[in-house]
Amino acid sequence: HRLLQESHREDPGLERVTLGVTADDKPLPPVRDGASYIEKRVNDQINWYRGRAKDYEQRVRALRALAEVLGLLAVVASAAGALLGLQGVATWVPVITTITTSLVAHVSASRYEEQVVDYLRTARALEELRDTRRSAGMGDAAFIDACEAQLASENQAWRIGWTAPPGQAPGQPP
Fold first, then answer.
1. Residues 58-81: pLDDT tens digits?
2. Which residue has the higher pLDDT, 58 or 108?
3. 165 pLDDT tier (thresholds 50, 70, 90)
4. Which long-range contacts (CB under 8 A, 24 or more apart) does 103-107 make?
């Protein structure tokens, strides 16, 4: 609850989208040291980010395939109307085209592709921290701080990304 209040102070716009949201009262993970932190936090986060990236990638591919099928259907309907005189079929061309355009706009506005890249980048950064912490001479506290900073950075990038118009780099002027 305290963290949500602090987030509202840092970003007043966040309060609008979190109205009515209450924090879960679940217990903290049983983290005792760097090894249990890796097991209970880092690996879980890596798996979550990789899983979400895979889900979003599959969603993008499915929606693009559907858009291509609808585009082809519009071409066939248009040709049937023009070449075969099937005006009833040709009248559906604007409807199909509108649906296709809406679908493509949805994919763009949903930022699935950007999220795939960001989520994979975060998973790789966490893996890199996990796999090189000993050789880098990182103690548990420094390692945990670095991982939490990476997660906070991704969270902040995600929040900023949703405020930028599609196609515009987050934080950049239009």
1. 999 999 999 999 999 999 999 999
2. 58
3. low
4. 103/63, 103/66, 103/67, 103/70, 104/67, 106/63, 107/60, 107/63, 107/64, 107/67
Average pLDDT for the chain:
84
Rounded to the nearest angstrom, the gap between the alpha carbon of residue 168 and the centroid of all alpha carbons in its chain is 16
- CA 103 and chain centroid, separation: 18
Residue tagged 């929040």 (tokens):
159
Report in angstroms the alpha-carbon separations of 151 from 5, 24, 168: 19, 19, 23
Read out DSSP for 124-160? HHHHHHHHHTTTTT--HHHHHHHHHHHHHHHHHHHHH
Its pTM stands at: 0.70
